[in-house]
Design goal:
Oligomer: single chain
Bound molecules: calcium ion
Helix content: 40-55%
Largest sheet: 5 strands, antiparallel
Distance between the termini: 55 Å
Radius of gyration: 23 Å
Low-confidence stretches: 7-29
Strand order of the largest sheet: 4-6-7-3-5
Structural class: mainly alpha
Shape: globular
Number of helices: 18
Strand content: 5-15%
Length: about 425
């Protein structure tokens, strides 16, 4: 089996879009967080309780003590909101343009450059040992937890036991629940520290318990493999070790945005790899104008078409996908790494969407709706459910046909 950290994509997007905010001072005893939505607080469910009772026997047979089980399950329970999020992942299968607008907007790049600078020494030390470049590690940190500021606050024992009980990927989540209990039993973390995303990913770089048990490192030598505290160095090292164990090659760039030669009609996609010199011979150049760096065997990605931003990606891009198997995620990490390293925005334009609106048009539409009292949410240019609802409400109030579709006419009407 592949060494994937998750069997699903965009867990972070789900977490950040659902408004999860980092917990800073966790209580000593796990208890429902009053700021979480009600579906993320334990609800009565006799079938789940029966499953937990049977699971506890299986855990004891695997060496988990009664004391660990009692401590770990105290205050935990069935979280219907976790199942909801698990089932609604298609909502997050977004276009690359929308995805980048969510995970790597300019204001996040600005914030991230400061966070990157503050961790430069730690990242350089980790890079020296594992060979994974500092900008890639910082980019993963940025995408996974907004540079440590949004680490998630959903109790991991509740989340993994709910998903193990629900059963769609029951074995995967039961294995993670078991590894979470081992974390408690060995004293790596207190039960109340085990909080994270809806799918049990924890800490600065959002590691699931399985990945923690396989790769966690005590890099600063304080005796704990600590991915939970405010200091991210163990999390950086753990993620670097994960990528190194997966097969990361030191010094190999992840890839870059490229200029596709006019009339190109050759292969696109990760299954069609060619040597860097073959791409050069075919007329490919860096989007910034220079020649191509050596990427070894590389593949051409153009998720929105060859006339939109296109990328050549290396073997190391595939290693990023082991962390989260979504090409948008891999491109998001690569793009953020480039921005953190001082690079500029993408050179190619995504152009207008199918409604004829550019990203800036969509942001202007959202701001205008909100200004008129129809809350369109964060003006990020991503037309989600909230913006659609605001358009519908505005259309209804204006006596227009109510279709919830953004358009240039609507933007002009809103002024
Ligand atoms: Ca440590």
């Amino acid at each position: 089996m592949q060494l994937t950290r998750r069997h699903f994509g965009l867990g972070l997007a789900a977490a950040s879009l659902s408004g999860c905010v980092a917990g800073t001072t966790a209580p000593r005893v796990a208890r429902p967080d009053p700021t979480l939505d009600p579906g993320l607080r334990p609800q009565p469910n006799p079938a789940y309780d029966a499953w937990v009772a049977a699971f506890r026997e299986r855990a004891k047979a695997r060496g988990i003590t009664e004391a660990t089980l009692t401590a770990a399950f105290r205050g935990q329970g069935f979280l219907p909101g976790v199942i909801e999020r698990d089932r609604n992942q298609t909502e997050f299968k977004r276009s690359l343009e929308d995805y980048l607008a969510i995970v790597a907007p300019d204001e996040k790049v600005v914030f991230g450059r400061r966070a990157y600078a503050a961790q430069k020494r730690a990242l350089a030390q980790v890079e020296a040992r594992y060979g994974v470049s500092a900008d890639i590690l910082a980019a993963i940190w940025g995408l996974e937890s907004y540079f440590g500021t949004k680490r998630g606050k959903i109790p991991v024992i509740s989340a993994t036991s709910t998903l193990a009980w629900e059963g769609r990927r029951g074995r995967f989540f039961e294995a993670n629940l078991m590894d979470a209990l081992r974390i408690v039993q060995t004293g790596d973390a207190r039960p109340d520290q085990l909080v994270g995303s809806w799918a049990g990913a924890m800490g600065h770089t959002q590691l699931i318990p399985n990945a923690y048990q396989q790769h966690a490192v005590d890099f600063d030598g304080d005796g704990k493999r600590d991915i939970w505290s405010d200091d991210p160095i163990d999390a950086f090292a753990t993620t670097a070790r994960f990528l190194s164990n997966a097969g990361w090659r030191r010094g190999l760039p992840w890839g870059l945005e490229v200029r596709v030669p006019d009339g190109y009609s050759g292969p696109v996609g990760r299954s069609a790899r060619r040597s860097t010199s073959a791409w050069r011979d075919a007329g490919f150049r860096a989007a910034t104008g220079g020649g191509l760096p050596d990427l070894g065997n590389a593949a051409l990605l153009a998720p929105m078409g060859l006339d939109k931003p296109a990328f050549l990606v290396s073997h190391n891009f595939d290693m990023i996908l082991r962390y989260n198997p979504s090409e948008n995620y891999g491109l998001g990490v690569g793009y953020m790494a480039q921005r953190l390293g001082g690079g500029g925005p993408l050179r190619a334009d995504f152009g207008p969407d199918r409604h004829g609106l550019t990203l800036e048009d969509r942001k202007a539409l959202q701001r205008a709706l909100t200004r008129r009292g129809f809350d369109a949410g964060t003006p990020d240019g991503v037309i989600g459910k909230k913006t659609e609802a605001a358009i519908r409400a505005y259309q209804a109030a204006q006596g227009l046909p109510v279709d919830g579709i953004p358009s240039r006419a609507l933007l002009q009407r809103l002024g």
